[in-house]
Design a protein that fits this description.
Elements lengths: L21 E4 L2 H9 L4 E4 L13 H9 L5 E5 L17 E3 L1 H7 L3
Parallel strand pairs: 1-2, 2-3, 3-4
């Protein structure tokens, strides 16, 4: 679910198939909304500088926001070959980078 979606009707979502509800957030209030929507994992972005966004979290702010929840946090935004090792310093359970995967492929 995108970060701008603030409706709480998803917490009663039932389906015969097992779906993981994943949300996107940019700050702590949005993380709390995603918790109320029962998102199992939350993409927190942007962690590093990107062409689209002037503001980014960097490692310290990312970790402080990740401590605000007990859900799995996935780092998103600005991840590339140069700063991939810096991800190990974060409290993220995973990483996502569309442009890096398009450029390098899945290995």
């Amino acid at each position: 679910m995108p970060s701008f979606n603030k409706k709480l009707i998803y917490k009663n979502f039932n389906s015969k198939k097992r779906f993981k509800i994943i949300g996107s957030a940019h700050n702590i209030p949005e993380i709390k909304i995603k918790e109320k929507q029962n998102c199992e994992e939350i993409f927190l972005s942007p962690i590093f500088k990107t062409e689209k966004h002037r503001k980014y979290l960097d490692i310290v702010k990312f970790n402080l926001q990740a401590l605000a929840t007990d859900r799995n946090i996935i780092a998103l935004g600005g991840v590339n070959t140069n700063n991939l090792n810096r991800i190990n310093l974060t409290k993220s359970k995973g990483v996502a980078s569309i442009s890096w995967i398009k450029k390098n492929g899945l290995k």
